[in-house]
Amino acid sequence: MIYLNERNILHMDLDTFFVSCERLIDSTLNNKPVLIGGTSDRGVVASCSYEARRFGIHSAMPMRMAKQLCPEAIILRGNSGIYSKYSTMVTDIIKENVPLYEKSSIDEFYIDLSGMDKFFGSYKLASELRNKVIKETGLPISFGLSINKTVAKIATGEAKPNNKIRISKGTEKPFLAPLSIRKIPMVGEVTYKSLCDLGIKKIRTVQEMPYEMMSKVLGKNGGSIWKKANGIDNAPVVQYQERKSISTERTFDRDTTDIIKLKTILTAMTQELTYQLRNGNKLTACVSVKIRYSDFQTYTMQKRIPYSASDHTIIPIIMDLFKRLYQRRLLVRLIGVSFSHLVEGGQQINLFEDCDKAISLYQAMDRIRKRYGSRAVINASGMGAKSIGRSNPFNGEAPPLLANRRL
Questions:
Q1: What are the boundaries of each domain within the chain?
Q2: Which CATH number fits domain 245-392: 1.10.357.10, 3.40.1400.10, 1.10.260.40, 3.30.1490.100?
Q3: Which of 108, 128, 249, 397 is catalytic?
């Protein structure tokens, strides 16, 4: 039996993941400030290189502000298909080499190596796994190894960029003490401001406070912060389960009633998601369309369908749902498409519906997309969509991603 005080928890994080993927495709981006995200005034930074961070840029910052801080930055819309592909590659490597892992986002993993010291050595195993990821994908990755998820994640942040660190049992509090309270994962901007107003800026200050005082000041949240500041976290590594839905949506720079534009973008969105289905060997049994009007009223409509991953089957259904849903004739602020009730396909597309010619066509198009990007081949009806929008692929939480920058 493995007790909690014998745990070895590894946290691995792909460094500036989206930027690193782009640099694998285009080496001229190396050592330059790179921003990925929406390019309009409403856009935000989804990811940025370390060179850009030196100017004070960070993820979730408005793109307009980022441009002001670093006018020479290279701005890319990003490619969700490419990021999904590399994330899957890393996931497969981890899956093949460890007994238990949790994928907490598209580029982050928790791995339970408890008991491995008896046979291999947890730090050695973690180092070998990191080297394998770097060698087989070309992506930089950092890790932190400690007795729990909180300390391991904070350690990874201190190890970056592209490095590793182990916090041995008994050294958690000294390691955490000099760090900013903002380093604790659950401390967001609002909580951080509240703590600063109380004169709490370093983790050491919380460590020196009684648990009851933190609980009294910040309630249950305060008690959780106190425990994490003291290196206490018994949360288990939860076995990774793949998502049961995927979606994408777009918020317009200017609200619109252009029906042709809306249908064009919906077509492009649907084709992007069906490609993700086939690439992930998945089928969907439920599709839905989402509309948000200029007054922020939001409506959705869905339909159950026979399991499929075919453009020619799903696009007409999406168009029909949109026709039935778009009734108010007001300016549209946002549209989106989602697929749910996903299952393993066993084949790339529905062999019961599609002829050999259609199957061969999809396979040929998907081979081109895998090599040149998900928007390299598109339906004529979707060509007008220069950007697709915010995408949420299978493998974990994803920030805003937009269409292939080459278009």
A1: 1-165, 174-229, 245-392
A2: 3.30.1490.100
A3: 108
For this structure, is 108 an active site residue?
Answer: yes
Q: Which CATH class is domain 174-229?
A: mainly alpha
- Cβ atoms of 54 and 63 within 8 Å: the answer is no
CATH class of the region 1-165 = alpha beta
CA-to-CA distance for 137 and 134, rounded, in angstroms? 6
Q: Which residues are annotated as a binding site?
A: 13, 107
Please give the chain's pLDDT, 407 residues, in tens: 344 457 999 999 999 999 999 999 999 999 999 999 877 766 788 899 999 999 999 988 889 999 999 999 999 988 777 888 899 899 999 999 998 999 988 899 999 999 876 667 899 999 999 999 999 999 999 999 999 999 999 999 999 999 999 999 999 999 999 999 999 998 988 889 989 998 999 999 999 999 999 988 888 889 999 999 999 999 999 888 776 789 999 999 899 999 999 999 999 999 999 988 888 778 888 999 999 999 889 999 999 988 888 888 899 999 999 999 998 778 999 999 999 988 765 443 443 344 445 556 666 666 666 666 655 555 554 455 555 454 555 443 333 333 332 22
Distance CA 255, CA 297 (A): 13
List binding-site positions for Mg(2+).
13, 107
Question: Token match 């220069």: residue?
Answer: 386
DSSP 174-220: HHHTTSBGGGSTT--HHHHHHHHHTT--BHHHHHTS-HHHHHHHHHH
